[in-house]
Every structure is written in C-alpha cells, then in structure tokens.
Amino acid sequence: MSLLTAFASVLLLAVLLSSLAHRTILSTAALFLVAGFVLGDGVLGVVSATAGDDVVGTLAELALFAVLFTDGMRVGWADLRTAWRLPGRALGWGLPLTLVITALGAHYLVGLGWIESLLIGAILAPTDPVFAAALVGNEKVPPRLRQLLNVESGVNDGLALPFVMVFLAVTAGSADLHLGELAAELGLGIVIGVVVPWVAIKLERTRWFAASTQYEPLNALAIGLLVLALGKITHGNLFLAAFAAGITVATFGQRQRESFEHFGELIAEMLKLAALLVFGALITPALLGAVGWRGWLFALLALVIARPVAIWISFLGSGLSVREQAAVAWFGPKGFASVVYGLIVLGSGIATAQEVFQLVAVAIVLSILLHSSTDVVVARWFDDEREVPAWYGTARRLSERARKRAPS
C-alpha cells in the first residue's frame, strides 16, 4: 500500500467519524497516529517510511510551515495587545520553566547530557490545542481560558523554534556550529515573513490591483507560497518566516485573514494529519521498548509535572480559579510542532539523534492519547448544567408541581 493510498483511506475514515469524534473521546489526531503505527514497518509493514526519505522531510517541512502560518494569523499584534496579560504569563514564564523542568528530568532521570536535555525540553515545550479541541471550542468554558490556550499555543511554536535550532546546532559540535550564520538565517526568515505580506497587502490596496471574490481566499495562500519560495532561495529560516508572515497578514490585512481562515485551516489540517500518519509509521514496537522504564517515566513526568509545575508558578496571583489553572496545567499537550521538531532532530545526523527522537516520540504518543481522550471530560467540568445531577432537576420539578397542587 502506498503512503497516498493509506492517507486517503484514513482521511475518509476520519471524515466519516468526525461527528462522533466531536461528541466522544475519539480523537482524529490519535486515529492517524495509531493508523500510521499499525500500517508501518513495526506491525503490518504495508507502509514503509524512514527518517531519511525525502517525502518525510518534505511533508514535515510543509506541514509545520502551514501550521505556523495559520497560527500566526490567529494572533495579530492587535489581538496580542488586547489579550496579553494571561498568555504573557504562560509564554514569558511557563514556556521557559517547562523547558527547564523537562531538561532536568531528561538529564537526571535518563542520563542525557545537558545540551541534549535542553534540546528535548525545547522540543516538548510547545503546546497544541488541537488535541484539546473540546475544551477550546466549548462556549461554556470561560472565554479568558479559551483565549489563553489559543494565544499561547499559537505563539509558543514560533518562540520555541530558535531554542530548538540553537541547541541542535550546539549538539552538532564545534565543527558544525556557526551561531552567526544561524542568527542570520533566523533574522532573514523574520524579514521575509514581514516584508512579503506587507508589500502584497499594500499593492492590493492601490487603484491598479484588486482581488475578486472568487480569488480572495487564494491571496493569503499566494503570500504564503511566495514566503516559502523566497525562504528556500535565500536560506532564511522557513518556520520563523511562516510565523512572521501569518502575524503580518493578521495585523495589516484583516480582509485577507478572514477570507483565508477556513481554507487555510483545512490545508494545514490535511498536512498535519499526513505528517502524523508518517510519524506513527516511524514508531515501532522496538522503538517504544528501547527507551526502557526510565524513558517512559520521563515521558509521564514531562506531562504530569513539568507543565503543571511551570503553570502553577507562572499564574501565582493571576486571579485564575483553581479549576481554570488545573485545566491550563493539564492541557499543555505536546502537539504537532513537537512532532516536526523531533523529525528534524532525527534527520540531523547528530550522535544522539535516535535517543532524543525516541524520548520525544514516547512523550508525544502519551500526550496525544491522554490529552485527546480527556478533553471532552474536562470540558464537561465547566458545563454548569452537567455539574447538577440529572435526578436533581427532575426532583425539583416534581416538588414544584406538588406545591402548586396543594391546597392553600
């Protein structure tokens, strides 16, 4: 079975089950991950994929570019200015604290060197609300909590990226370490991501150019493709370019943002699911067993200690209720950015690439399975109607009827 056939089949199944997934603990992301694992070389062997395959690297690159581009569009500068207080705590304190606590676990529990441990911390620090969709999309969850999770997850992928690249460069050793060149690539990516969409939006506002209603959704797509092409030609960092481009479009092109939003999210979702399928195919029973009990314990602690402790410290005195803080602390799922960063490390050729990837893979697998299967349960925690037992409402109605019938 080819990769395309496998993806099309699982995608059709996911579409047919999507309504059920919105109401239950069934997760589309988990479906693709498990399907990749079962179809991969480790189990059925009908889909073959290795880290060195061109399709793996290309798919991961395109998927992360699309995700960061659409993430950036959700958090224009105006949105950040009006809703920065709580997300600022999560990003300014929570992200680095999560990185450090995770690195401490990797160093002292697994025995990795400090740089490799910091690399793993940077890879696992970003969060993804896709695996907590029922919580983020539930209108009975406090708006500030949903906004906090959305803004945090939209920004932290891009913020974690420089740390991943720097620690990866340091891990590669002095022969491959060119921090000046790395800084130039990161800076060039940001410049491309800001200049290209700004010029494109300004051109459309002149009297010589105007996008028709039919082609309006393609405007932002064309901007994204041009940013991608120029980033490849100039060797600017594609991922920072994508994130910066998304923020620039959201800031200066509200019309372009709105017309592209649904279309862009579908493109990013398809690429993301395809990459999850490939990621699952790379995970084998041998890989899951190779990490040993220390690796599994590290992955569990990364989910139940690193993020919760970092969030508890970050939100001291913030005014969030205990229930809200608990929800934010738990729903820090290791999402798609961590998947792609793990694939980047696996293909980097560093000496510890396999070990780092194995630990990251185990943490991501646990996160996807645990977070995507508990989002509905925790979302109901905020449903005030569900907090009252069903029998209570019936008993109260019967009591009121009896009182009305009773003689005065």
Flag low-confidence runs: 385-399
Give the domain tally: 1
- What structural category arises from helix and sheet content? mainly alpha
- What are the secondary-structure elements, in order, as H or E? HHHHHHHHHHHHHHHHHHHH
Mean pLDDT, all residues: 81
Q: Into which percent range does the helicity of residues fall?
A: over 70%
Report, as a whole number of angstroms, the end-to-end distance.
Answer: 78 Å
Residue fraction in strands: under 5%
> What is the C-level CATH assignment?
Mainly Alpha
What would you report as the Rg, rounded to the nearest angstrom? 23 Å
Shape: globular
* Count of alpha and pi helical runs: 20
**Largest sheet descriptor:** none
Number of E strands? 0
Specify the CATH architecture.
Answer: Up-down Bundle
- The CATH topology assignment is Na+/H+ antiporter like fold
GO molecular function: antiporter activity
Subcellular location: Cell membrane
Main location: membrane
GO biological process, one term: proton transmembrane transport
